[in-house]
Amino acid sequence: MYAIVNIAGKQFKVTQDQFVYAPKLDLETGASVEFDQVLLAEADGTVSVGAPLLKGALVSGKVLDHVKGDKVIVFKKKRRKGYKKKNGHRQDFTKVLIETISL
Questions:
Q1: How many C-beta atoms lie closer than 10 Å to residue 78's C-beta?
Q2: pLDDT for residue 103 is more than 90
Q3: Cα 29 to Cα 25: distance, rounded to the nearest angstrom
Q4: How far is Cα 81 from Cα 21, in angstroms, rounded to an integer?
Q5: What is the spatial distance between Cα 67 and Cα 44, in angstroms, rounded to a whole number?
Q6: What percent of the chain has pLDDT over 90?
């Protein structure tokens, strides 16, 4: 069984007992969270597609931690002008454990 769910504007394919690194959510560590924007669900070989959402479908999970992603280097340069800028960026993520998928 799997589902495609919309979490903070991004779509994730989730299964039960899976870890998802979603964009940072304003929740405390250990809090339970429910996602009701389920776009597609598959159970026992039958696929249910929403138009645009499935009614009554719910994906619940638990917030495990708030983490940062890998560093991305941003390097800007204009040749022959002596202009160089080097910056780094680390995106904030929330680690969520998907507990149940109910249709």
A1: 9
A2: no
A3: 10
A4: 41
A5: 34
A6: 98
